[in-house]
Design a protein that fits this description.
Elements lengths: L1 H24 L7 H20 L4 H23 L4 H8 L5 H17 L3 H32 L7
Helix pairs in contact: 1-2, 1-4, 2-3, 2-4, 3-4, 3-6, 5-6
Keywords: Cell inner membrane, Cell membrane, Membrane, Transmembrane, Transmembrane helix
Subcellular location: Cell membrane
Membrane topology: Multi-pass membrane protein
Length: 155
């Protein structure tokens, strides 16, 4: 149990750093930086916790992104800001950069060494993982907006 707590603290600390870094790049107001760090840490921490309990990566990413989205909507109401101020930078630590990188490396190797079935399978596998994780992030972030801001037609 102590190992899991230390893993989560480590994961959340190192997820908060890129969230703040990207918030600075996106010119987020200084008062909102701490919320970007907290959201990035909470979302990535939830994803890590779920993965630890054998939830598939795509579903864990969806739930982490949804948590970021819901808390971001709450913060936007509280501080009268757009939810993207809090959520866009916070979601950055969950971007599947390693899978996308490995897919591109497989493409380069196929080009350089010629076609082979194992390289092609690796390329397709990494591209599919990247796409599904990005889809989970997109749906997770858009879920609060669909629930809270959707206009229902008047009958």
């Amino acid at each position: 149990m102590l190992d899991l707590i230390l893993l989560l603290i480590d994961d959340m600390f190192f997820a908060a750093i890129p969230a703040v870094g990207f918030a600075l790049v996106f010119n987020v107001p200084v008062k909102a930086l701490k919320y970007c760090a907290i959201l990035g840490a909470l979302g990535h921490g939830l994803r890590t916790l779920l993965i630890h309990y054998d939830v598939p990566l795509v579903f864990a990413t969806f739930f982490g992104a949804s948590l970021i989205g819901f808390i971001g909507v709450h913060l936007s109401h509280r501080y009268l800001a757009h939810p993207k101020v809090f959520t866009v930078a916070a979601i950055i630590p969950m971007i599947p950069g390693v899978y996308a990188y490995k897919a591109m490396i497989a493409i380069v190797q196929i080009h350089h060494y010629g076609f082979s079935d194992p390289l092609f399978v690796d390329m397709i596998d990494y591209f599919i993982k990247t796409g599904f994780i990005l889809g989970a992030i997109a749906f997770g972030l858009s879920l609060p907006g669909m629930l809270f801001y959707r206009q229902r037609p008047v009958v």
